[in-house]
Predict the structure.
Amino acid sequence: MKALLLVAHGSRRKDSNDEVRRLADRIRENSGPAFDFVECAFLEISCPQVDSAINDLAHDGATEITVFPYFLSAGTHVALDVPRIIEEEKANHPTMHFDILPHLGALQGISSLVLNHIYKSAPLSD
């Protein structure tokens, strides 16, 4: 069974964490048969943390987890922390397959998405 795991930083601000949870819910609703599970996890501060979310997915029957780092740039969390945690989880779940996607800011089309948003939000000039 396939799972998508959105990994975000985590915040002391509940609304920020809830925003990530709502995004995971929308992706789950729109992913069709691509994923049996769509969940989110956090690196710091909030729950579930990544290792706990992976354990829950394994318990629920996931055999493949696609990890999507929900970060705009490749800072320490993207470059070091997420890969390190996934390597640790590979040791804890040797039969599970993991794939780490490029982070949000590295996705093809992100500049077009930003520009489209700006154009739609910009007031019309005379």
Observations:
- The chain has a mean pLDDT of 95.
- The longest helix spans residues 14-30.
- Residues 2-121 form a domain with the Rossmann fold fold (CATH 3.40.50.1400).
- The chain has one domain: 2-121.
